[in-house]
Amino acid sequence: MAKKVSRRLRSLQEKVEDRAYAPIEALQLLKETATAKFPEAAEAHIRLGIDPKYTDQQLRTTVVLPKGTGQEVRVAVIARGEKVTEASNAGADIVGSEELISEIQNGRMDFDKLIATPDVMPQVARLGKLLGPRGLMPSPKGGTVTFDIASAISEFKAGKLEFRADRTGIVHVMFGKAAFPAEDLLVNLKALQETIDRNRPSGAKGRYWRTIFVSATMGPAIEVEISGLRDLKMTEAA
User: Fold this and answer.
1) Edge-to-edge strands, sheet with 75-78
2) pTM over 0.85
3) pLDDT for res 1
4) Distance, CA of 182 to CA of 48 (rounded, Å)
5) Of the CATH numbers 3.40.50.790, 3.90.930.12, 3.40.50.150, 3.30.70.120, which one belongs to the domain with range 75-158?
6) What are the tens digits of pLDDT across the range 143-174?
7) Degrees to nearest 5, angle at CA 57 with 53 and 60
8) Which pLDDT does position 9 carry in this prediction?
9) Pairing relation of β-strands 222-223 and 209-216?
10) Which of 119-123, 138-142, 197-201 has the lowest mean pLDDT?
11) SS3 label, residue 60
12) 175 vs 191: CA distance, rounded Å
């Protein structure tokens, strides 16, 4: 059964032409179509020429968005000894050791990012079924398993995001708020593109970038010129 499209969305879709837009033009249009009654996020949906069922074609990494995410990120840290104090001093919202692991097992989930030191990972591993589906399980690739607690906390609070390609080879990333200036969204989108290029899986064959669309949370999809984004120099985007 076809999903009914609201009158609001239908009128917004009429503003979007069936073509790829220059990056800054696409982002200006994203802002125009962010008409929901709440602060909408700016989202990117990028189809890559990869098949993640093969281990050498998987993409999972992090990006630091220079203009931030526009969100307050609540960081929890599981550590031991002096690292607990270090985490508190570095601005972690929730800090603990075995007792925090027990609280999470009992349903505590009032955080957006969970960082753990390597020495507690054997205990944290039993939280996999709870944290995995929510994308909260600490991992070295995601920068959330580390002894450098202070740096990790400051980076995630400043705009560092972890992302991965889904099983169909599509990356879905929130790269700011629709209320940001279009120029700031462009700086963040460019940082995302460079990160994806820099972390191209070794097994990726042929054309790596297939399509890129941006949208506000409740807005229509807007196609972006891939070459226009990849050829853009950071001095132009800044």
Assistant:
1) 94-96, 75-78, 113-116
2) no
3) 47
4) 24
5) 3.40.50.790
6) 899 999 999 999 999 888 889 999 999 999 99
7) 95
8) 75
9) antiparallel
10) 138-142
11) strand
12) 9
DSSP state of 21: B
pLDDT band at 11; cut points 50, 70, 90 = confident
As given in the structure block, the two tokens for residue 177 are 């708020």
Most distant CA pair in the chain, distance: 58
- When mean pLDDT is compared across 6-20, 27-41, 66-80, 201-215, the lowest value belongs to 6-20
Q: Which residue has the tokens 């700031």?
A: 184
Q: Which amino acid is at 174?
A: M
Q: Outline which parts of the chain fall under CATH 3.30.190.20.
A: 16-69+160-231
Section 99-110 average pLDDT: 94
HEC assignment per residue over 159-206: CEEEEEECCCCEEEEEEEECCCCHHHHHHHHHHHHHHHHHCCCCCCCC
Angle between helices 182-198 and 23-32 (to 10 degrees): 130
